[in-house]
Design a protein that fits this description.
Keywords: Acyltransferase, Amino-acid biosynthesis, Cytoplasm, Methionine biosynthesis, Transferase. The active site is at 137 (nucleophile), 291, 320. This protein folds into two domains: 6-167 and 265-343, 3-Layer(aba) Sandwich (Rossmann fold); 170-259, Rna Polymerase Sigma Factor, Chain: A (Orthogonal Bundle). The protein is built from twelve helices and ten strands. It has helices at 55-58, 111-124, 138-149, 168-182, 196-210, 213-220, 232-245, 250-261, 272-276, 296-305, 322-325, 327-343, and strands at 6-9, 14-15, 21-22, 26-32, 42-46, 75-79, 130-136, 154-160, 282-288, 310-314.
């Protein structure tokens, strides 16, 4: 089993949906396990906003030794998306030797650009069929877009806490975070550390959409009735902001949030319903009861228009983050889904 990151440089510039092209593109990716003789044991995991290509590190309980997707049984691929800061080309990547990174001037990307890059990686790896492509949130947006663009490639599609088109509510949350970042006077100046204080505030805003009222009530309530010098919920927001700024950068965060905002599978395809109707993969769509960022109605829409899709809801108090936490429930629904698929 290999978990060492690998890098694929693309031979040609990547045309972008918004116009222009991205030169010198490289894609960082991990593989785990062994491709079997029939080459039919491929699981492709698409990561969320600030995650990386090492899926075993951020989806434990679902991916890993002894977990549902065990590298002993599956050949697992996870690639870092363009615009990120974990090895694939992004705002902090020099555009050419001896050139500075583009920082805030990095071009606007869309989910279709992410798919186009990873499609080249799939072809490079010689994977003609993918048993299952799975993703939540931004990863789910990528997975459904890919299943529409290349319907014959994917046998199974698993979508968690995601949508067919990013909502005005989701876009508003992202814009509030970008405003916080851009209010940091260091953001406009560029440099690897630009906008980090703004990013810290942005993460605090984002957490309000990732979790739920109940989750904060359970974990951040004061222990007694005494007047606190500092509220637990305040400390938690600061702690989470510090955690993200230690591992991520503001320019990638802005880039990736714009990618989410532009997500619309129906663009140029006759609308959302017509686009989803192109999916050929057997599909499982999972919603989360307490998700305020991607509410269950968005997953129900996906299931309604993807032919033969199975829909289920996870009971969780963790909100949107439940797709990373409720791995036992996810595994349960996957078991039911695959049994139904084989019976079909």
């Amino acid at each position: 089993m290999s978990s060492n990151p690998q890098v694929l440089p693309l031979a040609e510039p990547l045309p972008l949906e918004c116009g222009g092209q991205l030169d010198g593109v490289q894609i960082a990716y991990h593989t785990y396990g062994t491709l079997n003789e029939a080459r039919d044991n491929v699981i492709w995991a698409c990561h969320a906003l600030t995650a990386n290509a090492d899926v075993l590190s951020w989806w434990p309980g679902l991916f890993g030794a002894g977990d549902y997707f065990d590298p002993a049984d599956w050949f697992i691929v996870c690639a870092n998306v363009l615009g990120s800061c974990y090895g694939s080309t992004g705002p902090l990547t020099p555009v050419a030797p001896r050139h500075k990174p583009l920082y805030a001037a990095f071009p606007r990307l869309t989910v279709r650009d992410l798919v186009a890059a990873h499609e080249q990686l799939r072809q490079h790896l010689g994977l003609t069929k993918i048993h299952t492509v799975i993703g939540g949130s931004l990863g789910g947006q990528q997975a459904v877009e890919w299943a529409i663009a290349q319907p014959a490639v994917f046998e199974h599609l698993v979508l968690l806490a995601t949508n067919a088109q990013h909502s005005p509510w989701g876009i508003a949350f992202n814009e509030a975070q970008r405003l916080a970042i851009q209010a940091d006077c260091t953001y406009a100046g560029g440099g690897p550390e630009g906008g980090q204080l703004g990013l810290r505030a942005a993460r605090a805003i984002a957490l309000l959409s990732y979790r739920s009222y109940e989750a904060y009530g359970r974990s951040q309530a004061e222990a007694d009735d005494e007047l606190p010098t500092f509220h637990r919920a305040s400390s938690y927001q600061q702690y989470q902001g510090d955690k993200l700024t230690a591992r991520f950068n503001a320019y990638s965060y802005v880039t990736l949030s714009h990618i989410m905002d532009a997500h619309h599978v129906g663009r140029g395809r006759g609308g959302v319903a017509a686009a989803l109707g192109r999916v050929q993969a057997r599909t499982l769509v999972l919603g989360i009861t307490s998700d305020v960022l991607f509410p269950p109605a968005e997953q129900q829409l996906l299931a309604r228009h993807i032919p033969g899709a199975m829909y289920a809801e996870m009971e969780s108090g963790y909100g949107h983050d439940g797709f990373l936490i409720e791995t036992a429930q996810i595994a349960h629904f996957l078991e039911r889904f695959y049994v139904q698929t084989f019976a079909h």
